[in-house]
């Protein structure tokens, strides 16, 4: 075949580029087509990329990008405690109305999970994450022009919460696609992004607010958050190991309206988890939002209070890693770790009302931060293991959506009580009591198991006695030796 003949010439450029087997393979496809009218050749060049390997080098780059996205987007929203006293003083509003700004933004992150999932299914993780980055930047830019706190409810709470939800969901989804063997480790690294974000963001934001004011800080952070979240361009959909059948099934479920399916509510484990987390969320985020203002009330400056978020971030990261490792052991019940974390967290919220110095607040925030990290980790583990694999997404969606209501209403109600009583003491008592109440709810599941076990034992006794031909089975004693049931007449 001559050089000018039409045809398809495939040249592998792997050797010429020095690309090894475990790296990206490039295949240069050149199509030569004779142009009839001009008597010349038109050369088309197309590059085909082989799928990225799971758990490979590019996978860890994706993990780093997702973690940075969480650090920027979630770190900012969970550092709202820095802006809480600033907004109160600037807009001359109460604790209740000001708390709605931060709590509503956090709630929408979870409430918009269904919308995020629909976008990911339609356009993929990369587009969804980049759209989220744009919304976050737009939100901060527009919010810097707000004339009153009511405007912030929409420009910041709704818009930033929605953008963060897109970043949040797409990051989790892309990690599950790029990792198989190291998925748990990658998820652990990803979730540390939130704690690390608060650790870094809080003191930096406090310095920026002191130096430039909150409006300029919002404008500057709009650019920072957008640029960091642009790392989502690494979320390539071209990854090996994609289960096309499962993806098709998920899309089919969406067409049927699977998101309004309430069948998982009939499962005791799912019901207990949803109710427990919903009650807990009423008071769980109260310390983070009201922390700086409470410190000012007991004589601690805002600068010193903002540094407490550093200890919170470190403790939260440690709690996530330790609890995740503990739950890897089969002998440890994840529900117990979940309950212990929130019982200690609830008690710490009650006792923080006795704090009178910076050292006291430091001890509180370290304990609470560690428990917060352990709670979030075990909550996610329980959400994906409390039901069958085909209903995991549905259970997680219901858990996030239901808890979003108390996440939004808890801190404002606590602020309302503090305004009415002119003290945070009764308000924190209420928040701590809610956390403790939610932590004890899983014990109902344990009681149900005991009743079920007793009922099963009685039924087995009757059936075994009847099959053995015992005349009066009510007088029979059933006992177990080496997992074998024996029957002996009681007479």
UniProtKB/TrEMBL annotation:
Q: Which GO molecular-function terms appear in the entry?
A: transmembrane transporter activity
Q: Does the keyword Cytoplasm apply?
A: no
Pfam families documented for this protein: MFS_1 (PF07690)
Q: What is this protein called?
A: Monocarboxylate transporter 8
Membrane topology label = Multi-pass membrane protein
Where in the cell?
A: Membrane
What is the protein's major site of localization?
Answer: membrane
Q: Where are the transmembrane segments?
A: 57-87, 99-120, 127-146, 152-172, 184-205, 217-235, 335-355, 361-382, 394-414, 426-447
Q: Which UniProt keywords apply?
A: Membrane, Transmembrane, Transmembrane helix
Q: Would you name any one GO CC term?
A: membrane
Q: Where is the Major facilitator superfamily (MFS) profile domain?
A: 61-450
